[in-house]
Each structure stands twice: as C-alpha cells, then as structure tokens.
Amino acid sequence: MPTIPQHIAIVMDGNGRWAKQRFLPRVAGHKQGVDALRRCANACQARGVRVLTVFAFSSENWNRPSEEVSGLMELFVSALLREAPSLLAQGVRLCVVGDRAGLSPKVLAALVNAEALTAHNTSLVFNVCFNYGGRWDIAQAAARLAARGEPITELALDRALSLAHVPDPDLLIRTGGEMRISNFLLWQAAYAELYFSSKLWPDFDEAELDAAIADYSQRERRFGKTTEQLRMLPTGT
Ligand code: FPP
Questions:
Q1: Structure confidence at residue 7 (pLDDT)
Q2: One-character DSSP codes across 74-138
Q3: Hey, which of 17, 66, 83, 143 has its CA 20 to 30 A from 35?
C-alpha cells in the first residue's frame, strides 16, 4: 500500500501547449484544465488525501494577453458556479487563497458564495490559489504582524500566512515538464517532496496521480535529520 500524502500541492502547467498542439486558443486548454482538475480532486479524495492546493492564477499571470486573462476570470467564475453544489455534496471545503484586491466584484461574489456554501465540509480541503504568489503571501503576513506590532518569528509568520488553516504540503507536483517552483508556496514547500511530470496538465489523469504518490512513497523524509536518526540508531554506525 502506498503512503498517501496528507497534503498535495500542484502547479497545473501545460494548458497552453495542450491547446497549441490542437490549433486551439489557449483558453480551450484552460477549459480542459478545469476538467482535469475536477478528476484530480475526486481522485485525491478517493485516495484519502486531506488537502489539495492548486495554482490556478498567479500574481504574474496578469501580464498574459488580455483575452487570456479575461478568459481565465470567466472560467473561474463559471467553474465556481457550476461546481459549488457538487463540492458541497461531496464534503469538499473550497478555500480561495490569494490577494483579493484587484479581483472584479463578479469574481469576488462567486468565490465568497462558493466558500460560504462549503465552509462546514471536512472531507477534503481544496485550496485554489488565485491571484496568489509566494512572495506576496510572505510580504502580506509580515505586514500584518508589523501592523499589530508583533515580533516577526517563524511561528507568527506561519500563522499569518494564507495557508495557515492547513499543514504544509507533503508532495508538490508540477506538470508540463518544467522544473521550477514559479513563486508557488515558497514558505510552505520547505520540506515538500517535489515531483515533476512531463504530462501536460489536461492529460494528467488518475494513473499519473498514482505514479506521483507511488514515487512519494519511496522517498525518505528526513526533515534535516540523518537516516540513522530516523531509524533510531546511534549516528556513525
Ligand atoms: C499554466 O499553464 C496554467 C495556468 C496559468 C492556469 C491554470 C488553470 C487551470 C488548470 C484551470 C483552472 C482555472 C481556473 C481559473 C479555476 P500554461 O498556460 O502556462 O501552459 P503552457 O506552459 O503550456 O503555456
């Protein structure tokens, strides 16, 4: 039996290339990405994962062509409206994580409603990072502590970050073949196991998820300790 990570985080990369390969507009790739995300969330829940965190729109994605940005906003609103009832029925709690300043009233209303609807669910916490950046998160946490006159300690920062409601990710998956963090979960991924898949996000299926979990199961998580310490043997033997 594989060890199931409690918290999986995903950089869903490759939607644009998926669309380009089919001579489709980039937004068509993002639409397919929403389907892949629904499949993945269901599969995570079925395997007993407790938290799924995905990178849906980064602080830097505003710099994309305007039709792609507006397409992603529309897609986000329609996905929230369409999926909220089934998230509720499946026991999934949706949390939208990121900078809400700069989001349109329509986007804000859709995310606030979906969050409120699912707020009491406990089976899977589903964090959608939207207008999110790891640097933004650390800066906003530090600014909040400073405004309250609190000392900036590791623990205080940890509690002021936007993912304070969940434990740190155990497994961080990036699809699309690139091996970068791209300003995702900079603080929280300190001890995450990294897994890079060459599959484009729309093609990421249950078998790919199982391959990532199987790979994770083989890892020795030392958190700065030695193998001997983990096995409770004296060091140097
Ligand atoms: C990266 O692929 C993906 C994104 C910037 C958006 C991810 C969004 C989804 C999977 C859909 C879910 C979205 C919402 C709004 C709920 P890319 O476009 O950088 O792909 P490329 O590297 O092939 O160009």
A1: 98
A2: HHHHHHHHHHHHHHHHHTEEEEEES--TT--HHHHHHHHHHHHHHTT--SEEEEEEEEE-HHHHH
A3: 66
> d(Cα 136, Cα 151) in Å, to the nearest integer?
19
Q: Among 10, 11, 12, 55, name the best residue to mutate to test ligand 1's pocket (greatest count of ligand atoms within 8 A of Cβ).
A: 12
What's the 44 CA to ligand 1 centre distance in angstroms?
Answer: 19
Low-confidence ranges of the chain (pLDDT < 50): none
3-state secondary structure (DSSP) of residue 196: strand
Tens-digit pLDDT profile for residues 131-158: 999 999 999 999 999 999 999 999 999 9
Please state, in angstroms and rounded to a whole number, the distance separating the CA atoms of residues 37 and 58: 17
**What are the residue ranges spanned by the domains of the chain?**
7-232
Q: Residue 170 belongs to what H/E stretch?
A: none
Topology of the domain covering 7-232: Undecaprenyl pyrophosphate synthetase (3.40.1180)
pLDDT at 209: 98
pLDDT of res. 226: 84
Write down the residue that tokens 């900078």 correspond to.
99
The reported pLDDT for the residue numbered 207 is: 98
Most informative mutation of 10, 11, 12, 15 for ligand 1 (most atoms within 8 A of CB): 15
Residues designated as active site = 13, 61
How many whole angstroms separate alpha carbon 101 and alpha carbon 152? 24
